[in-house]
Amino acid sequence: MLTSESSTYFIEVENGNIECLQLGNGPKLLICLHGFGDNVNLFREIAPAWTNDYTLVSFSLPYHGNTEWKPSHFSSRNIREIIDSILKKYDQERFSILGYSMGGKITMYCVQKYYSDQIDRMILCASDGLKTHTLYDVSKLPRWYLELMMILMRFPKLMFKVVGFIYNRGLLSKFLYDFFMNHFETEKQRRRFFGTATSSRFMKPDLNKIADIVNQNKIPVDMYFGERDEVILIDGAVKFSEKINNVRFFQLPKGHLLIDEDLCKLMSEN
Q: Residue 194 above 90 pLDDT?
């Protein structure tokens, strides 16, 4: 049975201690995966749309939030261990799953590899893994580039000066400049970036297989994408949606940052 608690708690797994947040106490279970740089609290904004019917559980991915993670990378098997632990805690075999940005990519890969016959509904919000702008797809960064970046980041003050110099001359977009300034300042942030970049490159969903799985298992899919999204290109999302029999596609007049009160209202109405 699902509990009536709404709280933050931790699940201990082989390689770490995973921060989880429960919102609501509905009879069904909805597990949410956030994007890069986010944490469990991201989904508080949309929880009211779901908590009448669902218990919403989000967890902070390795290197994010208050999750403690020991290794220098994580795999889909680690994500499976976390999800299985959540299912066990709530005594559930079936569940719905929601993924935002990088969490959408991990969601699709895990559904493809582990959970094809356990999913009641899949919700993708500005999901990575469909068609990501080349500049923002860290999973496609060459290994030599990541290793070079790790060497250069031993001298962060110099790196910040170089990035500022390039930005001031109009050779770097504001998005990439802000991304660098917000995600490389501390050692913890740098470990998060390199650990995530190394790990996510091995979790690439096969979109044709995903479409076959959701169609064969009659899994309803909801897709929410921003028409001004610079990171996830909406035409790739549209093409993927055309492969799915039972899909609802919502195009919002927004960029990549979708998880907010407006999305909650849209979800509540649909």
A: no
43-50 LR contacts (CB < 8 Å, sep 24+): 43/98, 43/259, 45/259, 45/260, 45/261, 45/263, 45/264, 46/259, 46/260, 46/263, 46/264, 46/267, 47/23, 47/264, 48/264, 48/268, 49/264, 49/265, 49/267, 49/268, 50/24, 50/26, 50/267
User: What is the predicted pLDDT for the residue at 210?
Assistant: 97
Cβ distance 102 to 196 under 8 Å? Answer: yes
What's the pLDDT score for residue 126?
94
What beta strand segments (E) does 85-216 contain? Answer: 95-100, 119-125
Q: How far apart are CA 195 and CA 230, in angstroms?
A: 23
Report d(CA 72, CA 78) in Å as an integer. 13
Within a 13 Å sphere around the CA of 184, how many CA atoms are in the beta-carbon half?
20
Q: What is the CA radius of gyration of the chain?
A: 18
β partners of residue 68: 17
How many CB atoms are located within 10 Å of the residue 184 CB?
A: 19
List pLDDT tens digits, range 213-264. Answer: 999 999 999 999 999 988 888 999 999 999 999 999 999 999 999 999 999 9
pLDDT of 44 strictly over 60:
yes
Is-contact 215 225, C-beta < 8 A?
A: no
pTM: 0.86
| CB atoms near residue 224 (< 10 Å) | 26
Q: What distance in Å separates the CA atoms of residue 151 and residue 165, rounded to the nearest whole number?
A: 20
The rounded distance, in Å, linking the Cα atoms of 87 and 29 is 8
Mean residue pLDDT across the chain:
88
